[in-house]
Structure to design on (117 residues):
């Protein structure tokens, strides 16, 4: 074991690791409930997602025909929407990583039967 102040054997010796306890990690809310609801209801992600899925359902020749048919300005807007969608996904990945860590801390507190602060 290596986490939570565990011991590690090196050349027959036992060393104590000075790792912080998972339950020592503290955090405050990142969003208000209103901010979370607003982000949840944002339609900008939906537009980028739909364009992404549309592009993935077409063959090369079909996509070329579609781009030719819609013209340069809408095509540029589609590219912008997909790029914004990619940025949103990266942000959501970072937020979900933080949420996962917070859940692990809370779960460890319950397992350790430690009262919450």
């Amino acid at each position: 074991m290596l986490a939570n102040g565990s011991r590690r054997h090196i050349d027959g010796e036992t060393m104590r690791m000075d790792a912080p306890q998972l339950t020592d990690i503290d955090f405050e809310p990142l969003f208000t409930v209103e901010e979370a609801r607003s982000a949840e209801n944002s339609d900008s992600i939906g537009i980028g997602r739909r364009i992404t899925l549309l592009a993935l359902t077409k063959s090369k020749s079909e996509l070329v025909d579609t781009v030719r048919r819609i013209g340069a300005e809408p095509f540029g807007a589609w590219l912008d929407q997909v790029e914004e969608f990619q940025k949103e996904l990266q942000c959501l990945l970072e937020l979900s990583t933080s949420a996962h860590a917070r859940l692990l801390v809370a779960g460890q507190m319950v397992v350790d039967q430690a009262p919450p602060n």
Confidence is low (pLDDT under 50) at residues 1-9. The chain has one domain: 28-111. The longest helix spans residues 72-111.
